[in-house]
Amino acid sequence: MRNTDNAEGSTPKSDQPAVQPSGSQTLLRGLDVIEAVAHGPIALSDLAARLGLNRSTTHRLANALVERRYLTFRPRFGYRLGPKVIQLGFIAQSDVDVVRVARPHLEDLAAATEDTVHLGIPDEGRALYLDKIPGNRRVEISSRIGDRHPLTSTGLGKALLLDGDPALWRSLFDSDDPHGRRAISHAVWLERMQAYSAKGYAFDLEENEDRIRCVAAPIRDAAGEIVAAISVSSAAQYMADERMAALSVDVMSTANAISEELGWDRDALPPPRKPRARR
Questions:
Q1: Its pTM surpasses 0.70
Q2: Half-sphere exposure in the Cβ direction for 176 (13 Å, CA)
Q3: What structural domains does the chain harbor?
């Protein structure tokens, strides 16, 4: 039986005749319905107003999506995303491989900068390097794929922490440097982290390896959470403060492009949640 219920509990009536759209227009309108419902349950009248369509056309489109399980309907609550969308989203998310998605972007960044580019993820309180593209300069960066480095001393690690708060940063700094032997002071490191967090990128100013500097930025997933980071590393002689500031633009742009392929939308999503200290 065809579902004729609407969000107010009765069959919708239109004040104007419904115009039958073309096939492609119907498809686009159906996608508009799904995107409108993605923000939460919505009544038929509100859905029609948001789409700029009459109630009859909106009801017909929404019911077709209910029949195909892309939407569900509950009286007094309205339409919401259905199990088919959730299933497809899970399949798409499972199919995404951050290394595969990031690789062409990393290659372009390495070619443009001539420096070594890394990709890494958080792993039990460390930054795990998943990919590395060597640079063209006469500089050898000793890192290898599979290496795990402290989050608090590498630029990539700090980029993974940018959504954190001072309490998290402080605890990680103390655990990475339990005897207080690091050259940089606790207060200076926290001050830098606050600045990095505000700007959206991080530096390694020879903190992890002598005479090696890097610029790093986070990669976000569809939920807006930081799931990985990239960095550009080179010898300090090639990484003057002015060049690092300029590189931050390119590194952030590359990280954002990768994030968008992972489903991130900076305009449509709420602020990301605070990260956990351990994955």
A1: no
A2: 28
A3: 23-92 (1.10.10.10), 96-261 (3.30.450.40)
